[in-house]
Write a structure and sequence with these properties.
This protein is mainly beta and 191 residues long. The chain has no helices and 19 strands. Strands 3, 4, 6, 7, 9, 11, 14, 15 and 18 form a nine-stranded parallel β-sheet that branches. It has an eight-stranded mixed β-sheet with strand order 1-2-5-8-10-13-17-19, with no helix packed on it.
């Protein structure tokens, strides 16, 4: 069945997938949401923007993790190779997948470009690398660092906030946590 110009569907493995049929595509969020499955962004190279319907009222996207290290929630976004995604005016929190890098967001693959603007990451965790965000395998992420904040994120391995491996991270200004500088990476790094 058809679901209009854009489609959100549950795939066979239980993952929520978004495929934009018209480009560019915008998803406007009006209410806070607790996700029980990760959103896989794989638009086939088209631009997708995810943002709050009212920029003065950022919505919260939660992975449902309670904070108990014996429990898990879900990763909020898994962004696949070839995707071009902008995420703005949201709070992303309580992501903790049972496996894999990126507690709240995993960005993978060449020709994958993700931009974050006015986004707050809080209480994102992983048993691997990248408590809040893992950027790997040739992906490029841009942070409007004057408006991207991090709080109480953790990783069992490297990068409580951000883990970068064979990928690029660009920041417009300074990342607002412990006054660390955001810089392009070569090889594996964590900030």
């Amino acid at each position: 069945t058809s679901c209009g110009p854009s489609c959100i569907k549950i795939t066979g493995g239980g993952a929520l997938a978004y495929a934009a049929k018209e480009q560019p595509s915008t998803i406007l969020l009006a209410n806070d949401m607790t996700l029980h499955t990760s959103v896989n962004m794989n638009p086939g190279g088209g631009l997708i923007t995810i943002k709050s319907k009212d920029p003065s009222q950022p919505v919260t996207l939660s992975g449902g993790w309670s904070g108990d290290t014996a429990e898990f929630g879900v990763r909020i976004f898994s962004i696949s190779p070839g995707a071009q995604v902008t995420i703005e005016d949201v709070h992303i929190e309580n992501g903790r997948p049972p496996v894999g890098e990126g507690g709240c967001v995993a960005v993978r693959g060449a020709n994958t470009h993700v931009a974050f603007k006015n986004v707050h990451f809080e209480k994102c965790s992983t048993e691997s690398n990248g408590g809040a965000i893992a950027i790997t395998s040739g992906a490029t992420v841009t942070l409007d660092a004057g408006s991207v904040t991090m709080a109480d994120n953790s990783a069992a391995a490297e990068g409580d906030d951000i883990y970068i491996s064979s990928a690029d991270l660009t920041c417009a200004t300074q990342l607002q946590r412990h006054e660390r500088r955001c810089r392009p990476s070569v090889g594996a790094r964590h900030v």
